[in-house]
Amino acid sequence: MSESFGACEAGLGTTGNQFFNNLWEQAAAQGITVMISAGDPGSAGCDDFNTESVAINGLAVSGFASTPFNVAVGGTDFDDFSSQTSFWSASNGTGRESALGYIHEIPWNNSCAANATATTLNTVCVSPSPSSLLSISGGSGGPSSVYARPAFQNGIIPNGIAAGDNHRYIPDASLFASDGPQSKSFYLLCEADGISAGSAPSCAPDSSGHFSFFAAGGTSASSPAFAAIMALINQSNGRQGNANPVLYKIAATAGQSCNSSATPLTGSTTCSFYDITKGNNSVPCAGNSPNCSSKTTGTNGVLVSPASATTPAWTTAAGSGAIPGYDLATGLGSVNVANLATQWPLAVGNFHATATTLTVNASASPAPIPHGTAATVKVTVTSTSAGTITGDVGLLAPTAVNGGIGDSTLSGGTVTITGVILPGGTYNLNARYAGDTTFASSTSSPGVPVVVNKENSRLQYGIVTFDASGNILSTNATTVAYGSPYILRFDILNHTTSACTPLAGTPVLTGCAFDATGTVTIKDNGSPLDAGSFPVNSAGSGEDQPIQLLPGSHALSASYSGDISYNASGPIADTLTVTKAATATQVVPNVTSITSGGSITLTATVATISNGAGPTGTVQFRNGSSALSAAATCTPTAASSTAAAFCTATLTTTLSFLSPPSFPRRIPRIPSKPIWILPFLLLIMFLLSLKRLPIAKRYGYASAGLLLFVFLAAAVAGCGGSSSSGHTDSITAVYSGDTNYAVSTSAAVSISVQ
To answer: How many domains does the chain contain in total?
Structure first.
């Protein structure tokens, strides 16, 4: 198996490192070879090559890859940056290949530190050209800070490591991992089935013959490539488990490691490993950070060895000891697959042969065992050769599921494993010894015949609801709102009456059937719910995550299929009520003040917190209690991964449709009030009084009287007239609701009409 993820040892912590150590140890005991990518941040295993251009955390390695039970796979690149014509043909050969033969290799290192020497440590990564060289991308490696040196690395002293060091070193071996910025070589990937012809990155050409691909690299590519090589080894030699004892034994054999830079185009007919002798996997670092050559803050240096302040960490220079060619940049080097396959059985033959036997419940022919009842298995490993047999053993059942039962470590060639839960069925149980650096692996044969009868099962399921932060509110809700965050979860339980509450704050797990497999069929009101049949996962549970029930009452029913260890159970009924989702309507005008007769655009947004379909229906815009035109259609937008469902409606109207909200419309008219009679009466009385005045004085009095009349009339008009300064309209929007969403009314907004 291959794993391309990783995290540095310091980041994983004690619990995380122990988890992966136990996991890969169990796999190795069961005969599974685990390949793990060494990582892509060069020697800076705790820095993020995706976001950082210089390392700040010093030297480190991946805790996924550093256990002694896996093969850590590093990365190489082609050493042809300035000599590609020596290795590539300008035209394709008969097999459509342009490579002329074997291409010399160096560590995969995209950074400026790849060219660092003892005299350029603090200058090589200062404003490099091109600027893309200021990067920490490269194959990872170095000493573990967690694990001691395993036996298969005894006698190895890599360059840059002080004599007497006792750490586990990675990588173990390397393969091509470049993504192409310098060698122009990379893993070419494309897709033909899911992408239309001619569209990137489709392999299928369009009508003009155009096709595309994209480049990939990293130890995420070299690790699965090495797993493919191990698959070939397994086809010829059977289960290998931890391949490191054999890999290092072959590398220590005379003539099995050749200098990559001196290998001809024809390759080697004998060497299993191409020892990489040029380059390093050091990366640039921030001045004054751990293990950085520069001690000045604000400058760049490169990561250097703690044992030598002038040696980049880590170089491919020869070390000393049992395998001088081993280095912390590429491990044992890259491999010649054909030669490695030839040497594998020869190397295995150099290990002392062993024989493995076992008993179950102190018998070679035990009585039938009910599933769920713990058994005791004793495993013994012997050899005709002298020496102490060490290492792990694993139990194997030839069942379709749960065949790998457990592992334990030998003491004096034997171990008793208690609490073993065997999978159901009738079969021969076997034990496999993983081997060590002296003794070969072996598997018992024919094993111990066992009969494991099924136990009854129980099924529980419920609706799990969450708050906006993802915290669990309930594990068995009976009412939910449409589109609210919830899932349906089911668990398979064993035959006991014990509880199984894995999601509780204080979980109770004694009743959980973690080894259950099979499927659970769920119906809603008699019809299949979503997929209808849901697989039971490796933890004996399962979920319907995309569940989205419509408002109303739902009669749910679930049944468990059973498997080789558990009888079927169900159907189990449950009832769920789904209510309409709440909505919140808001109306926004494009202006807040208009002149009489002007137009205005009103936009209503009906918001929800639903992750379902968008709201439909209509929005009625109102001015006070009066409707403005017909109801507008609300255009729905379904929820996405970043936003809840909503809908919008728009209305453009004018003043003629915007009536005052609380009184009828007034038509302007000329004011006509009794106060106007007063100036006319005064005028008549004044004219009559003129007859009593002498003729000489009548003209003056007439002029004064007319002026008085004008002023009086103006004053009366000012008191009795009217003026208009506009009015304010109160606008609201009323959402009609639909089958999924509830009615809502917006708050009022004021529009000033002048």
So the answer is: 6
